[in-house]
Every structure is written in C-alpha cells, then in structure tokens.
Specification:
Layout lengths: L1 E5 L7 E8 L13 H20 L13 E7 L2 E7 L15 H17 L21 H6 L4 H14 L5 E3 L8 E3 L6 E3 L6 E3 L2 H11 L2 H25 L6 H26 L8 H17 L1
Antiparallel strand pairs: 1-2, 2-4, 3-4, 5-8, 6-7
Helix pairs in contact: 2-5, 2-6, 4-7, 4-8, 5-7, 7-8
C-alpha cells in the first residue's frame, strides 16, 4: 500500500509511505499462483529495500529518484518513507508519450545506466528485470514450441554475459516515470526488479510501453542515437569516454536480443498482449538470425 501523509512540525510538508506486508499466500490476478511467483514477489520487496538503503543516494539529479527518509522492517512488514515527488516538482503521470517525452525518459535511463556502469548489484537481483528467464519457468513452460522458445536459454545467456553491465531499473515503463510540470524532466519510482544487466533491456521495454509498433519502427534510429549520445556525454564527464565505442557497439547489437527476451516472456504469460506486435516480431527475427549465425 502506498499512501501520502501530511506532516506537522516538520520542514517536510508531505511524505509518501510504502507499506508492505509480505504475503503468506500466492495471489495473482492472471492465475500465476505458483511458488516461484510467490518467492519472486517476496524477494522483489527485499530488493527494493536494499536499493533505497545502499544505492539510491548515488543517483544524480539527471537520474532523479525519491529521497529515502527511513526504512523499518518488522517481521512480515516493511515500511519505506520516501520523498513526495509531486511536492518535489514531478506531479505529472502519463500513459502515452510523444517522441520528445520518450527522449526525456531515455535521458534518465542513459544517466542511470552510466552512473551504475560496472557496479556490483550486491543484495539486488543478480539479473535485473521482472521477466528474466530464471524467475519465469512457468511462463516458459506455457509457450508454444517455437524457435523463440528453443532459443530462450541462448538469448538469456547472451544478455547475461555481455561485457558492459550496469544496473537496469527492471520495470522502466511509462507509468513509473513522474514528469515535471513543463515535461522536460522526470524522476523514476518502483525499484522492485532492479539488478544487473545490459541497459538495452530497459530501453526496449520503455519503447514498447509507450510507442506503437509503427512509431517504434519510425523512431528507432533517432531514439537509440539520442540514448547513446547521452551516455557518451555522461561517460565523458566521468572520465570514462574511452570505453564508449565498445559499449555502444555491444549494446546496439543486443537491442533486438533484449526485445526478443521480453517477447519470450509475453508469449508465455499473455500471447494476446498488445505489446506482441509486428515491430517486436521483427526484432525477434533479428535476434534469432544473430544466434543462428553464431552456430
């Protein structure tokens, strides 16, 4: 449960409190009531607590997150007291984005990925994102026998073994970005699935969450170029610009693989989902072709 509280006799007027009571039973709206699902959810709450304890304060203003004012664990209950992002100047929520608004979110991701490049995700998910293969055996089992299902372990291995790893937000959909009034800045929330991995997993997931299949096709090159130019700028400021060309080459090649990884999850979880679209299918074919050429 997430609630906003007004404070008295405090410099802060409001705070947001995330109150988590760890479930004793599995309960999933789509019927995925399995032990694996239950344990994944419990760990996700623990991961978010560790994120706010040890890592969130490393974020720069360019990858803004809510300040954490306090954490308390008591048995099956966890309480996280956070900054009210509405009061901090990020009161706008969106369900769809224009191309320029997508760039605002990509700027956040690029700064976030550059900030945590090569940082060990201690006590977070070793592999970030809520759909990664090791935590989704039930969905994999439900998939029809297709080349994508057969390639799923290889897709997972390629992403997990990339040379340049960072922290991935793990659920970087449009709903988890809070916009400023003028739409030029964002802050991000919901860090239950943060962990290690290739930054393309966040980028592919973001684009799929806020653009149509045709928009993805039209804007792909422009948006990826913007993302990488932002990372280059941040790495240059941090004295790490020498690695940029190799990082860009590797992550560019992994963009369709990241799309294929998420599509694999959807095809087992809900194959009729609107995110299973023509653009995603093209990326899957590119990923499968890459894998076949490796053999």
């Amino acid at each position: 449960m997430i609630s906003r509280y007004e404070l008295t006799e405090s410099d802060l007027k409001t705070v947001v409190v995330k109150n988590i009571i760890l479930p004793n039973e599995t309960n999933h709206p789509r019927g995925w009531n399995t032990k694996t699902s239950h344990q994944r959810k419990i760990k996700s709450y623990q991961v978010e607590t560790e994120w706010y304890k040890h890592f969130s304060n490393l974020c720069t203003p360019e990858c803004r997150v809510p300040k954490c004012y306090g954490i308390q664990n008591s048995g099956e209950e966890q309480v996280i007291v956070l900054e009210d992002l509405d009061a901090a100047g990020f009161p706008i929520r969106k369900s769809t984005l224009t191309k320029n608004e997508v760039k605002v979110c990509l700027k956040w991701l690029a700064n976030f990925h550059a900030t945590f490049l090569n940082v060990e995700p201690q006590d977070l998910w070793n592999v970030g994102t809520y759909w990664h293969l090791a935590t989704r055996p039930d969905e994999l089992k439900e998939m029809n026998e297709t080349p994508l299902k057969q390639a799923a372990p290889m897709i997972d291995e390629i992403l997990n073994n990339c040379q340049y790893k960072t922290f991935v937000h793990g659920d970087a959909k449009v709903a988890n970005f809070c916009f400023s009034e003028d739409g030029t800045k964002v802050a991000a929330v919901d860090f239950q699935y943060i962990g290690g991995g290739c930054g393309m997993k966040d980028v592919a997931y973001l684009l799929g969450s806020c653009l149509t299949s045709n928009e993805c096709k039209i804007y792909e090159q422009e948006l990826l170029a913007f993302y990488f130019s932002t990372i280059k700028s941040v790495l240059s400021k941090n004295g790490k610009d020498t690695i940029f060309k190799e990082l860009e080459k590797e992550w560019q090649s992994l963009y369709p693989v990241a799309w294929a990884d998420f599509t694999r999850f959807l095809m087992g979880w809900m194959p009729t989902h609107q995110k299973v679209n023509e653009y995603g299918k093209i990326q899957v074919e590119k990923a499968l072709e890459m894998i076949n050429n490796k053999d």
